[in-house]
Design a protein that fits this description.
Blueprint (H helix, E strand, L loop, with lengths): L1 E7 L2 E2 L8 E8 L2 E9 L6 H9 L4 E3 L5 H9 L3 E3 L6 H9 L23 H4 L9
Parallel strand pairs: 1-5, 5-6
Antiparallel strand pairs: 1-2, 1-3, 3-4
Amino acid sequence: MRIAVTYENGQIFQHFGHTERFKVYDVQNGAVATATVVNTNGSGHGALADVLKKLGVDTLICGGIGGGAQKALQQAGIRFFGGASGDADEAVQALLADRLVFDPAAKCDHHGEHHHEGACGDHGCGEHHCHE
């Protein structure tokens, strides 16, 4: 199993389409064997699903995620757990223990509406409905 987490400063980054890094975890025998931080090299939104597919990722943990990105991940055969927050390493451990807290309806639907440069983590998401 190979898990990717949208990643910034040890935390789950809250806007999938703007993530600059993934932390990728290789899981063997139910435990993390290795973890590496991977730069997205400026890829955004739909292209990120392709980045994950090329990395051999089969599972994603993230914060807010738009419908287009969800569809791209589904087409790539990548399971995703949106609406997660907090420490990235702890989230992976929680997923492996089958106790990850996430929101299956998490989405980021504010594209084009008062969208600021940066990511949801920078502008709070509260006014933009990333987790509704």
